[in-house]
Structure formats: C-alpha cells, structure tokens
Specification:
Keywords: Metal-binding, Zinc, Zinc-finger. One of its GO terms (molecular function) is zinc ion binding. This is FLYWCH-type domain-containing protein. With 180 residues, the protein is mainly beta. It folds into two domains: 11-91, N-terminal domain of TfIIb (Single Sheet), CATH 2.20.25; 106-179, N-terminal domain of TfIIb. It is built from no helices and 16 strands. It has strands spanning 11-14, 20-24, 36-39, 45-49, 52-59, 63-68, 77-81, 87-91, 106-110, 116-120, 123-131, 134-139, 147-151, 156-160, 170-173, 176-179. The chain has a six-stranded antiparallel β-sheet, with no helix packed on it.
C-alpha cells in the first residue's frame, strides 16, 4: 500500500490479520491502515477505520473495493486483495466528520431459574418481549429506561443504553448468572 498523501512515498503491506508484513518508510513516518469489521442495523458488514465506516462496493475475482458510507459526498475508498488481505490502493481523506454510532457487545447467560439474561456494558437486561424475529431487552434496574433490540441470533438492532444507577454486582460461571 502507498501512503494516501500525494508527495509521500511510504509503502507497506499487510497480512490477513491486518498486521504490517513489510513497509518502506519515507521521512520516518508511515500511516497504518487498521480495520475492524462490524454489522450495520440491517446486518450488512461494514469495515471501520478511525471511526469512519466503509461498505463493500465491488468484488472482483481478486480484490474487494470499499467505499465510504457517505459516498455521495465523500470519495474515500480502499481496495484489498482477497488472497492475503493486503492493500492495493487507498484514498482515505474524508470531507466530513465520522458517523455517530456505538458498538454494542452483548453477553447472554442464564439465571438459576432458567430464564435468559443479557449483559451489556456491565448492566443486566431481561427479555421483555419477542416481536417477530426480534427480542426487546429491558434493564433490570428499577424504573431504568435502558433497553435494546436484538435479533434471534444476538445482533443488536437498536439500543438506548443510558442508565441512572450503578451496575449490579454479579459473576457468570459456565454461562450461569449469579448475583454477588
């Protein structure tokens, strides 16, 4: 991969784990393209770099081209080789602020009585309702408004995770939730 600045001649390659495999550094500086992959609310995979999101715009036999999710007004993009995940080309300058979103990791466990419980950011949630293919989970705190919706396979669709109480003290042992 070459640096995205016009006069810079830095060069580096990545392996599949997005670790630098080789690099050529000019002026003592190089820019690292670190990516993580997340799912959007409709379940499609997005690549994320420094808070900006990219969607898979085109797939050929050998490469994947990713465009900024604000492609209509921002032309940031990059191309990855499918074989080893190395970068072929990147233009990563955006003309807008990164999107405002949050990444939510949820752990599902079972209470002693067999009921399911969800744990998110240290807070516990009970399953309040099932609608079609989604579950609505509400905070176990008294009168707390914290809640989220997740699909049957655990992908979070919407979340309101503001709490006005301290998280409960608990441990999870072999998938079983126990209060401390």
């Amino acid at each position: 991969m070459f640096c995205c600045f016009v006069f810079c001649k830095s060069r580096f390659d990545f392996n599949k784990q997005l670790q630098i495999r080789s690099n050529e550094i000019q002026n003592g500086t190089y820019f690292l393209l670190t990516l993580s992959y997340v799912l959007n609310s409709s379940g499609k995979q997005l690549a994320m770099r420094m808070g900006y999101t990219f969607y898979l715009a085109r797939r050929t036999k050998t490469t994947d081209k990713w465009h900024c999710t604000s492609w209509s007004r921002c032309r940031a993009n990059f191309i990855l080789y499918q074989a080893d995940g190395s970068t072929k080309l990147a233009a990563l300058e955006h003309n807008h602020a990164p999107p405002n979103f949050q990444i939510v990791n949820v752990i599902f466990a079972t209470k002693k009585n067999g009921k399911p419980i969800a744990i998110c950011q240290g807070y516990t949630f009970y399953c309040a309702r099932q609608t079609g293919s989604y579950y609505t989970w509400r905070c176990t705190g008294n009168k707390c408004k914290g809640r989220f919706q997740a699909s049957i396979d655990g992908v979070v669709k919407t979340a309101k995770l503001e709490h006005f109480h301290t998280p409960p003290k608990f441990i999870v042992c072999d998938g079983v939730y126990l209060k401390c």
